[in-house]
Design brief:
The protein is α+β, with helices and mostly antiparallel strands. The chain is built from four helices and nine strands; from the N terminus they run βββαβαβαββββα. Helix content is 27%, strand content 22%.
């Protein structure tokens, strides 16, 4: 396994994905004032992702008011990504699709194999990435990251808003950056 560990205050991997709007998202090309919030989700097959992304869409104006632009992205194809964007009535959240599993791994995401149909009757892809949430500074460095092996118990967006408020007000540095001997 080649699991990558991203380091706070260091550059994140490139991210260049198609959007359901017909445009492309290229990380760093037009960053948010304070952060880009990247929410990697499992795909249309995941009912927990739908609930999570509904909350993200509800709070999207709060992130925008703080100078944070929001992207939800998965390895789903365009049709499945459009269906997910429709399920959450996406207006404030942009939906990217076609994330390669190689790119997912570069971001430190875990990869799962299909178990067939989910509880909502949608087939899982043969391989797909598990969730991850990242805040990336406009200079392309990692500020915050959380990856998961399962769809459960993800970082809550309301909590993240409070953390962003604190980070901006106090100019709080990214933590976890030490890579020396211990």
């Amino acid at each position: 396994m080649n699991q990558t560990a991203l380091i706070p205050r260091h550059p994140v991997p490139a991210l260049n994905v198609a959007l359901t709007t017909g445009d492309r998202f290229v990380l760093g090309a037009s960053p948010g004032e304070h952060f880009d919030l990247l929410v990697f989700y499992r795909g249309l097959h995941c009912p927990i992702c739908t609930k999570y992304l509904l909350e993200l869409e509800r709070l999207a104006p709060e992130f925008a008011a703080r100078g944070v632009q929001v992207l939800a992205v998965s390895s789903d194809d365009e049709d499945r990504a459009r269906q997910m964007a429709g399920k959450v009535s996406a207006k404030g959240v942009r939906f990217g699709y076609g994330l390669s599993l190689k790119s997912a791994r570069q971001w430190g995401l875990y990869i799962s194999t299909s178990r067939g149909k989910t509880s909502i009757g949608i087939d899982e892809p043969a391989l797909f990435s598990e969730p991850g949430v990242f805040l990336v500074r406009p200079d392309g460095t990692l500020y915050y990251g959380a990856v998961q092996t399962m769809p459960f118990a993800r970082p809550q967006f309301h909590d993240l808003l409070g953390a962003i408020d604190f980070a901006i007000a106090k100019d709080y540095p990214a933590r976890g950056e030490y890579t020396g001997e211990v």
